[in-house]
Amino acid sequence: MSGIRIAVMAVCIGPGLFTSPLSYAAVSPDSSIAAFQKAHSKSLGEKIFAFPGKAIYFPLKYTMRGLNWTIGYVDDSKIPARIDDFLTSDDGLRGVQPTYSSRVGIGFRFYQNALFGDDKEYNQFSISISTWDLERQQYCLDLEDFQIIGKTLTGGLSTGYVKLTEEPFYGIGIDTQFDDESTYTKEQTFAEATFGYHPAGNFKLECRFGTEFVNTMRGLEEGMPSTTTLYDSQTLPGLCDQVELFHTMLGMVVDTRDRPGNPTKGFDAEVSGGFFTEVGDDRFGYWQFNFDATRYVHLFYERVLAVRIAAQRNDPLEDRGIPFYNLAELGEHETIRGFKRGRYRDRDMLLGSLEYRWPIWRSWDDYGVDFLIFGDVGQVTPDLLEEFEVDNFKPGIGGGIRFWGEEALILRLEAGHSEDGWRFYAVLN
Amino acid sequence: MIKKLTKYIIFLFFIFSLIGCSGYKPFVPPLPVPDDRNPVSKPAFKSAPNDFYDAFNQQFVLQGEQMMDFPRGYRKLTGNPKEAWNADAFGEVPNSSWFTNRNHQKRFPLDQIARGPDTSDGPDASSTWKVVSAKAEGVTPGFTIIDSRGDKYVIKFDPIGYDGLNSGAEVIGSKLFYAAGYNVPENYITFFDTRILKLGDKVKFTDEKGSRRFMNDTDLADILKRIEYQPNGLVRATASKYIEGSVLGPFHYEETRQDDPNDFIPHQHRRELRGLKVLAVWLNHIDAKAANSMDSYSGEEPEGWVKHYLIDFGTILGSGGRGPQPKYRSYENEMDPQALLWRTITLGLYVPGWDKVPKQVDYPCIGRFYSDYYHPEKFKFIFPNPAFDNQTSVDGYWGAKIVMSFTDEQIRAAVEQARYPDPDAAEVLIKTLIERRDITGSYWFTRVAPLDNFHLFEDKNGSQMLAFLDLAVETGLEKQEDSTYRYSVKRNGDFVVQPRVIGSIRVITLPETEAGLAPGDQWEINLQVKRSSSKKYSPLVRIYLVQEYGHYRLLGIQREG
User: Fold this and answer.
1) Mean pLDDT score of chain B
2) Which of A186, B176, B528, B533 could anchor a disulfide with B537, C-beta 3.0 to 4.6 Å?
3) What residues have CB less than 8 Å from A375, skipping those under 6 apart?
4) B392, B420, B448: which is the final residue of a domain?
């Protein structure tokens, strides 16, 4: 029965679909003024049959219209331009940027490039403040690439205070368990001077020396045991202790990337080595060697493979120790992205990473969005030379999205998976 | 429930198909479209929509609406899209406030192509220009001046390092779109000494941060620092003359302007706007949107009427406005969900066509404009355009006829007006335009049989004949000897002449008429063409005739596509 009813309805209304709704009847009696009857885009039949689609689309349409109107209003009101104007000086050398990282929270960074001279790449000054819940805090003051002798010899100074109340600790070694997590508070005051020698455009020799004053205390993360209740300074060197360390490092940096924000080819490598020694006592002292190199391989049409190898080796001076928080560690976005930060710690670390990036969207060559997939693998070991085992490698895989600008990476959103589960990261500026 | 619903949908589909295919229907010529240049009261000014609003609206909101428009989907599915509403019985559009039949109806002499819409030789650069407004925002600054004759011009500059890029595109665009039939502003290449610029009183100014304020001499000096100077110290710029009448804001490519009684046909159903797509594709006018159009009240109120203009051709051909067109332009919308999805799921292994376009730009003054990578059927605009979305094959054919009406010499005449600094670049541009024109014509003249200009005559024996032109042959795309025509004749829907091949002759002998017969019977000639390079005949062209007192009269034509 229903079928017949629909058929009758279709036969009656159907022709409406094929009838042009056009007519040109002039409705004004005043011939001096044109007043044609406006044609409708749809005939009555079409309107009836379009109704279900319209009804389904209605909520989405007006949600999008609302969003659309908001975008239009924000742009018309010049709010982003005004904020940018407010936060950035007319010459673009001075400004304020928002910052975010999961470790220290949200904040801002005030910068002044070309503090003297007119090259914005040099004589940079910045202050950054970040916090989360007012518990985790970071205050930094940086003077970078100050010209001592032209562009050949530069100097810098970095000083700050960091308080991190939810630092994770899982134990030392590659066999630690995810469920053994505890947290501690790390309070650090530091100052470091840097001298850089630039004999060639892409090559730099660096000498760094500085001091850090570290205090570790009870962790404040709710529902998580404090590391201080599970360990003491005997079982975990540096815990519940105040340690002042002085360090001297020599390093070499090579950077041949074609553009820093979104490199498609080139090489970025840093090798450094030096020692840390305790000031006023001889409990702690060790050598540290770092190697971190990333090669960007242009595969085809801006599809890029980033191959990274990194290693760290910490070697105690005679019978002295290494504070546990300064051991090599694996976890989070700088190492194996499927693990939480500090998931594995030991004296030495070896890391390998493959990351494939491909472009999704471009706006001229100024801005773009890339997707990426990656595989990270790494291990910590008491001695990289003696106790390295292939079976100890911990893998992690994942993917993400990068929003980049001409000069720098703007936003990175990543998800990594490992035997511990999923981890998500967002890094702004 | 879903099963039942599916059954009903299939049933409805069947019923509608039956309605669509029911018996003989005589051809009814469309009503003549009234002139839309009647006196109306002056409508209010409406500003252009915000760029982001317009983009988001066109790309997402309206595309979603189209997807959920079931009758439209049904028409598409059954190959029965709505044809344009303002075409006459022969598929042409009458002269109107939108369009004037020009080059494709009567070929323009070369000097007329070169002159285009121009009524003078541009702003008088021999005396002072008074700056009356300016903008510093964006990559290329610009300002509005009044010259010594009292004419008002918008002065626009080329991006630094790309002398001639925007200005050349602007001028060529205005010449070709004008000759095609559209209303465009007068655009001139001008060379001037910046010392003739004098700042007017209380000049409103949009600074680099987008703030509106009064302009001062420092602002003017700052703008003049951001432009390129010729070796002789002069500055090359486009002078775009203010369009006549009072401006009313842009027109939209959909629906009608409610406060204009003359505007009675929804814009997306106007053939000249749907067919504009073919020209826009040919000339790489990727930014054909509301903001690049303008309505103007022409004449004195209340005797005036609204005239519709295309404006701003600075981003056509190889120019992207701030430099050469980015490689992806014309291949993808600015935010193309389909392309984004495709690139995502293939992990970037799918390489879009634009990735293969060379990075290097050979001629800075013409930018990135190629025929090698040109595929009219795949062309995409920065954002979808509702009139273009409604284009049918017949609209496309109409547009292609206009594109193909431009001769090599006419294209050369238009390009010469750009006064490019590099003569080699101008030659390359001319060659590219000619090649793209032919690719455009080849595409559309294959989709729709390019048989046109039908006319009746009697031979010396008194037989009535129907002659026609093959535009593919006329324009040199195909050879006469490679073309075979076939026709059949129906009388009131019944075959009286079965399909008959007439070789490469473009004349059909019509059946003998019955003297004294009153009007009534309708005759239908179904005509097709086959090229030697193809195995299939083209889609049909149906020519409708009516017999009146021993003679045939052309009623109209219908094209399949």
Assistant:
1) 90
2) B528
3) A353, A354, A395, A396, A397
4) B448
Tell me which H or E stretch contains B111: helix B110-115
Q: Contact B268/A41, CB-based, under 8 Å?
A: yes
The mean-pLDDT minimum among A77-81, B141-145, B313-317 falls in A77-81
Number of domains in chain B: 2
pLDDT in tens, B65-121: 888 999 999 988 888 899 999 999 999 999 999 999 999 999 999 999 999 999 999
Q: Which of residues 225-284 of A touch B (CB under 8 A)?
A: none
What is the per-residue pLDDT for A10? 52
> In which band, very low, low, confident or very high, does the pLDDT at B139 lie, cut at 50, 70 and 90?
low
Interface ipTM above 0.85: no
**Residue B516 reports pLDDT greater than 60:** no
Would the CB atoms of A68 and B71 count as touching at under 8 Å?
Answer: no
Q: Which residue has the higher pLDDT, B213 or B424?
A: B424
Helices and strands, counts by H and E, chain B: 15, 18
**Rounded CA separation B446/B6 (Å):** 37
Distances (CA, A) of A335 to A380, B153, B532: 12, 60, 65
Task: Report yes or no: A276 and A210 within 8 Å, Cβ to Cβ.
Answer: no
Domains of chain A: 2-76 (no CATH), 152-428 (2.40.160.50)
Which chain B residues are closer than 8 Å to A52 by Cβ?
70
Same domain for B123 and B267: yes
Whole-number Å distance between alpha carbons of A146 and A297: 32
Domain that holds residue B38: 33-448
DSSP B474-537: HTTSS-GGGEEEEEEEEETTEEEEEEEEEET--EEEPPPP-TTPPBTBEEEEEEEEEETT-SSP
Contact of A85 with chain B, judged by CB distance below 8 Å, is answered with yes
Query: Can you point out the beta strands (E) in B4-49?
Result: none
**Cross-chain CB nearest to B15 (options A10, A28, A45):** A10
Confidence of residue B12 (pLDDT cuts 50, 70, 90): low
Which three-class secondary structure state does DSSP give residue A320? coil
